[in-house]
Design a protein that fits this description.
Blueprint (H helix, E strand, L loop, with lengths): L1 E7 L2 E9 L2 E6 L1 H5 L17 E3 L4 H4 L5 H11 L6 H8 L7 E7 L4 E2 L2
Antiparallel strand pairs: 1-2, 1-5, 2-3, 3-4, 5-6
Amino acid sequence: MKKGIVYLRNIKAGVLTEDENGYTFRYDEEFLKSSDAEAISLTLPLTDKVYRADVLFPFFDGLIPEGWLLDVAEKNWKISSRDRMSLLLACCKDCIGAVGVMPVNDDEEGLVP
């Protein structure tokens, strides 16, 4: 299983997970209660329900670099261009824009250094 914490303007907004059943995204409870809570995307409105998909949600897929930058990521980290979640976790910690995705270490349930 691959997991990433999704941040909106450096505030934990939710968790994105890939497992054998596909992808899930869930907003963080504390984030939802916050007066500053806003959807990370128009396609992922605020809700306490879990979003599920067979493929990586288009919003997150759009964060992954393209062109020569994708080639650099694939070669340096030896990640297939079809492994979208691994590319997202490797390349999108500090994206242009308000959203970033940090990988989670499943053993410790903490952030990977």
